Structures are given as structure tokens and as C-alpha cells.
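Good morning,

Attaching, inline, the C-alpha cells for the sequence recovery test we're adding to the shared suite. The designed sequence is right after.
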């Protein structure tokens, strides 16, 4: 039978198999909340693999996004909720070492970047990540120019 569904979901996401992903989530919506060995959610893995349709399918299952997931997909209301609950999350690092601002910059989430900067996030590494991905609007914002 292969992997159990909680790990199969990561393979399905990486493959961009949205049909199978939808079937897994229909059978068990809680799979949208599982974490892999490195602590990543299916949403973040889908983002890293540029599987936009898989991201949309996962978000439709209404997973519990942590601040890193929320920053990566540009869910401003969720990012705000997390920061209001725990301001220290502004400087927290994901399991792969990125702050919420760095993830938002890497994935080109301009409005989330704007919010995190307004909250006082450290922009030191974020500009390089935005530049690497060609997110020029984010880069301008990080350099202190209004967009």
C-alpha cells in the first residue's frame, strides 16, 4: 500500500497531483495539518515546489496555518492573529531557519511584507531572498521605498 496517508500527502503535493490530493483531503481533512519530519506543513511544501494548484486545494481544506505557513501564502489576517497573540513570533525562525518576513519576501507576498515591516521585522536577510526570486515590488519595500 505504500506510505500511510499522513506522509503520502507530501509526495502527492510534490508531484502536484491535485486529483489525488483532493481525494486524500476529502477522506481525511485533517491531513492538511500534518507535519513532515522537518516540521513542514503540506502548504509550505507545496509553496516550495511551486505547486500553486496544490496550495489552493490545501487552503480550501482550511488547515491550521502557523505563522510561517501564513506568511508564505500571504494570509495577512492569520499573520496578524499570530502576532497579536505572541509578538515574539516576529523574530521566530521556521524549522528551516527563516523568519516570517523572510518567507513572505521569498514568496513575493507584498502586503504581508508590508505588515511585518510595520510590526518591526528585521529586514536584513529578506532583501536577498526577494531578489533571488525576482520579487521587485517586495525588494523596493524592503529597501524602504514605498510601493
Amino acid at each position: 500500500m505504500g506510505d500511510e496517508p499522513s506522509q503520502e500527502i507530501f509526495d502527492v503535493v510534490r508531484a502536484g497531483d491535485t486529483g489525488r490530493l483532493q481525494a486524500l483531503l476529502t477522506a481525511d481533512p485533517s491531513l492538511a495539518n500534518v507535519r513532515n519530519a522537518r516540521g513542514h506543513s503540506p502548504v509550505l511544501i507545496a509553496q516550495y515546489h511551486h505547486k500553486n494548484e496544490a496550495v489552493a486545494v490545501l487552503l480550501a481544506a482550511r488547515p491550521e496555518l502557523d505563522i510561517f505557513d501564513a506568511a508564505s501564502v500571504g494570509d495577512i489576517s492569520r499573520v496578524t492573529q499570530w502576532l497579536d497573540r505572541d509578538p515574539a513570533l516576529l523574530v521566530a525562525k521556521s524549522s528551516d531557519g527563516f523568519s516570517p518576513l523572510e518567507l513572505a519576501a521569498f514568496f513575493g507576498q507584498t502586503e504581508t511584507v508590508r505588515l511585518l515591516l510595520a510590526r518591526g521585522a528585521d529586514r536584513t536577510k529578506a532583501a536577498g531572498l526577494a531578489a533571488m526570486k525576482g520579487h521587485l515590488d517586495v525588494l523596493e519595500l524592503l529597501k524602504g521605498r514605498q510601493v
